[in-house]
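Weekly structure sync, notes
Attendees: PL (lead), two postdocs, one rotation student
Agenda item 3: pending single-chain targets
PL asked that the sequence for the first pending target be pasted directly into the notes so everyone works from the same version. It is reproduced below exactly as submitted, 273 residues in total.
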Amino acid sequence: MGGSGSYVYAETSSPRLLGDLFTLIYDGSACSSSSPSPSLDASPNPERHGKPTPSSADLIVDVEAALGLEPLTLEPPSDTGMGVSTVTFYYHMYGTTMGELRLTNAAGEVVWSLSGDQGNSWQVATVDVYSASFAFEYTRDTSWTGDAAVALVAVSCGAAPPPPPAAPPSVSSTGPCKAYGNCACSSNYDASCTSYSSKYKNNEECTVTFSSSAVLTSWAFSTESGYDSVTVNGVQYSGSTSPDGVVASSMTWSSDGSVVRGGWKICQTLLPN
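Predicted structure, written out during the meeting:
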């Protein structure tokens, strides 16, 4: 494989079979412990890996000892009480029958994977994990020409970033009804459901669909009572009785062939997580 130093690898020669699973687990203790174990060597060792000495803001943990290779080195000592945020490692996958190398989190979810011949050289990867622990898994392919190796594994400790904000609500409509932003309105409103003129028309039908289940808020509601109705969750609303406060993901509108009124404007508010 070239180079020098320690590494761990999956030996795929006989009696290994197609589909055999190799697993290498790290429990994340260097990140979760309030202080390093007495057996840990806490002195920085930048020359060994050819990387600069980290600052106090950059907690790097060399986890080769947990992988059974050498004394664990913390740079600097960990006192975070947090989980593993990222994992950086070198891998070597050279052979005509390479299987699949995976990195999984504590829940067993695959956060990184690679398969096939990657050439006769060491490659480096950095993967977001955000988990209490992680494991390397390798699944053997059809033959012995598929050894995979991992070396120079390091972790960063930290909390996961906050989840992205929820997508803004949106509404779509078929038929003569209008939809704009998170609101829907009858046909006599303008395209932005801001203002209206005259009244809606006879014999209208349309379906309004919300991006997700939402609480409906009626900003205006005036239809012919008992005949021209908005139907939500199987319930018809007409006259001045609107579906205000009802939770729904869609609604329908229909008007008959006689009396018309000022119409309606109904908006949605996303449910809290």
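Discussion points:
- The two ends are 50 Å apart (CA to CA).
- Residues 8-157 form a domain with the Jelly Rolls fold (CATH 2.60.120).
Action: rotation student to compare against the earlier draft before next sync.
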